[in-house]
Design brief:
The complex is a heterodimer of chains A (127) and B (154).
Chain A (H helix, E strand, L loop, with lengths): L2 E6 L3 H14 L3 E7 L2 H10 L4 E4 L8 H9 L9 E5 L4 H9 L4 E4 L4 H15 L1
Parallel strand pairs in A: 1-2, 1-3, 3-4, 4-5
Chain B lengths: L4 H16 L3 E3 L11 E9 L4 E8 H12 L6 H27 L6 E2 L3 E5 L1 H9 L3 E6 L2 E8 L6
Antiparallel strand pairs in B: 1-6, 2-3, 2-4, 2-5, 3-7, 6-7
Helix pairs in contact in B: 1-3, 2-3
The chains are: A alpha/beta (127), B alpha+beta (154).
């Protein structure tokens, strides 16, 4: 099954690198959508079918933490798996994110195989 | 918390190798050709302690690093377009790993959005003269890294 994946990061470079990493991971992707911040992501989630979201924490306008909070409060979005991709390694923050409903945390820099493992695990779980 | 130059060097070298496949080694600042066409990326962090991190390098080195980061040839038009953004992202990753190395995995830090600007010769000299600035040789390419904790000299 091919998935619709949304990558949310304020860096155009990171969005391009994530797209390449997803492609290299061998994950089956139907559509790869991108957003520059949480607010833009919510607009996309409102109109598109998305199977999985990769989001950064630290973004202007709306960061990843607020994005997750808003998604969890929305009946149509609350079950979409979210993976936080960040440079941060704080166990306290990671625990807080997991408690708020984030499915996984991927610390930068990562290898495509790490990404594939996360996609497989989450999409396997959500089937 | 002990931001020794050795720790800062170790973290920077580790991230650079994993992120852009370049080996970074210590280089005396006096051995770096001064000034020229350099750019600097800078960001701040706040948490149990606060400070800033900056990374400076010649513009042509910024392009090479961007090419490695993007996995593209140096002449690819995307490389120039994404060069500043790549430098910001590399700084962001270095900062995250530096803070974990220094403070451990419990504290939470807020990181600012990195900013990039051109360094004039005067700016370069001022940055190079700071006591917590460190010089690097990235496989023949120079860089300056400054991990600054107010009131602490690395």
């Amino acid at each position: 099954m091919a998935y619709n994946i949304l990558v949310v990061d304020d860096s155009e470079t990171v969005r391009a690198v994530m797209a390449k990493a997803i492609e290299m991971s061998g994950a089956e992707v139907k559509t790869l959508l991108t957003a520059g911040h949480g607010e833009e992501a919510l607009e996309i989630l409102d109109r598109e079918w998305v199977d999985l979201v990769f989001a950064d924490i630290n973004m202007p306008v709306m960061g990843g933490v607020e994005l997750v909070k808003r998604m969890k409060a929305d009946a149509d979005m609350k079950n979409i798996p979210v993976v936080i991709v960040s440079t941060e390694g704080s166990a306290t923050r990671i625990k807080g994110l997991m408690d708020s409903g984030v499915h996984a945390f991927l610390r930068k820099p990562f290898k495509p195989e790490n990404l594939k493992a996360v996609i497989d695990e989450i999409m396997g779980k959500s089937k | 918390m002990n931001a020794t130059p050795e720790l800062v060097r170790e973290v920077f070298a580790r991230v650079l190798e994993r992120q852009v496949f370049l080996f970074a080694e210590e280089l005396a600042i006096e051995d770096i050709p001064p000034g020229g066409d350099w750019v600097e990326a800078r960001m701040a962090f706040n948490g149990p302690f606060e400070g800033s991190l900056s990374l400076a390098m010649p513009k042509d080195v910024e392009l090479e690093i961007a090419a490695n980061f993007l996995g593209k040839e140096a002449g690819d038009p995307d490389v120039a377009r994404f060069a500043q953004d790549s430098l910001k992202e590399i700084l962001n990753v270095v900062c995250g790993h530096m803070l974990t190395a220094l403070a451990g995995e419990d504290p939470v830090f807020d990181l600012s959005i990195p900013k990039v600007h051109a360094l004039s010769s005067g700016d370069w000299a001022a940055l190079a003269a700071l006591p917590d600035s460190l010089g690097f040789d990235m496989e023949g390419k120079p860089a300056l890294l400054r991990f600054h904790l107010p009131g602490v000299t690395a």
